[in-house]
Design brief:
The chain has about 300 residues and is of the alpha/beta class. About 50% of the residues lie in helices and about 15% in strands. The protein has one domain: Alpha-Beta Barrel (TIM Barrel), CATH 3.20.20. It has an eight-stranded parallel beta barrel, surrounded by ten helices. Helix 5 packs parallel to helix 6 and helix 6 packs parallel to helix 7. The chain binds glyceraldehyde-3-phosphate, 1,3-dihydroxyacetonephosphate (13P) and zinc ion. 1,3-dihydroxyacetonephosphate binds next to strand 3, strand 8 and helix 11. Keywords: Lyase, Metal-binding, Zinc.
Length: about 300
């Protein structure tokens, strides 16, 4: 069914697992993800960035998600990823999204509180849940200058949640978006996550930038014409540990992109005379399904969560 994240997060928190939130852009990604979730009887969050909204349009995405629900019968929440403003929030709620993120992490604390509260009031009046963000994830270029990390302060997190009434909170504990997360040894601030968990008992925390960056997929890309150097993600054991703590939602986009690109490059290189999109897009879809099944088994622990 089309659901919000309320029930998903409650069960995930109590069961010490997390729900995967996968970024979607097209039919093959949606089918790859939901086929995996169906095979594991797992709930899932399909999330849409503003870039994806622009690429596919809310109507195409929402109608494909509706089809996925009809075909698979699994519980799906449709979520706006990194919503920039109220206007975008209104647009996706109109389209039928059940969850929105407002990312005010680049504003100062008081402005983030004010804008998030405004979104929460609007969304809650329409039965939609809200994820907010506090703290700044490191950017790709910031990796070398780690002082640019602004880890989430537990005191501020408590104050922020109480004042905004947001339903979940994305925090910064050392992850970043993209395929180049750590220049050296991966490190996450589990002490901050633990402190926030203690101060906000039962409250769902969200981990952005949580792709593991499969070295196998990177190697396949590079073997068949790609040039991806120095890619590194969050080790699976760290994601597992976070999922057993207060983290209830684990965001992954880069891993899907790498799986898709690896499968496409390999298929086209090995089948030079093939030009039927169903063949190469089919290979990509299959690789995405395999990736998500492994995520559910090894990282999220969300099998049989419905
Ligand atoms: O948070 C970032 C996601 O990976 C979405 O990326 O803005 O390129 O669609 P995008
Ligand atoms: P990755 O780049 O690690 O896949 O993170 C995606 C994300 O956080 C989307 O909001
Ligand atoms: Zn993100």
């Amino acid at each position: 069914a089309l659901v919000t994240t309320k029930e998903m997060f409650k069960k995930a928190y109590e069961g010490k697992y997390s729900i995967g939130a996968f970024n979607i852009n097209d039919m093959e990604i949606i089918q790859g993800v939901v086929n995996a979730c169906k095979s594991r009887n797992s709930a899932v969050i399909l999330q849409v960035s503003t870039g994806a909204l622009k690429y596919a349009g809310p109507a195409y995405l929402m109608n494909m998600v509706d089809a996925a629900i009809k075909e698979t019968g699994i519980d799906i929440a449709v979520h706006l990823d990194h919503g920039p403003d109220l206007e975008t929030v209104k647009q996706v709620i109109e389209a039928g999204f059940t969850s929105v993120m407002f990312d005010g992490s680049h504003y100062d604390f008081e402005e983030n509180v004010r804008l998030t509260k405004e979104i929460v009031d609007y969304a809650h009046a329409r039965g939609v849940v809200v994820e907010a963000e506090l703290g700044v994830l490191a950017g790709v270029e910031d990796d070398v200058h780690s002082e640019k990390h602004v880890y989430t302060q537990p005191d501020e997190a408590v104050d922020f949640v109480q004042r905004t009434g947001c339903d979940s909170l994305a925090i910064a504990i050392g992850t970043s978006h993209g395929a180049f997360k750590f220049a050296g040894t991966p490190e996450l601030k589990f002490d901050i996550l633990e402190e926030i968990g203690n101060r906000l008992p039962g409250y769902p925390i969200v981990l952005h930038g949580a792709s593991a960056v499969s070295q196998e997929h990177v190697a396949t890309c590079n073997e068949f014409g790609g040039a991806i150097k120095g890619a590194q993600g969050v080790p699976k054991e760290m994601l597992r540990r976070a999922s057993e703590m207060a983290v209830c939602k684990v965001n992954m986009d880069t891993d899907i992109r790498l799986a898709m690109t690896a499968a496409l490059r390999k298929f086209l290189a090995e089948n030079p005379s093939e030009f039927d999109p169903r063949k190469y897009m089919g290979a990509a879809r299959k690789e995405i399904q395999k990736l998500v099944e492994e995520k559910i088994d090894d990282v999220l622990g969300s099998a049989n969560s419905m």
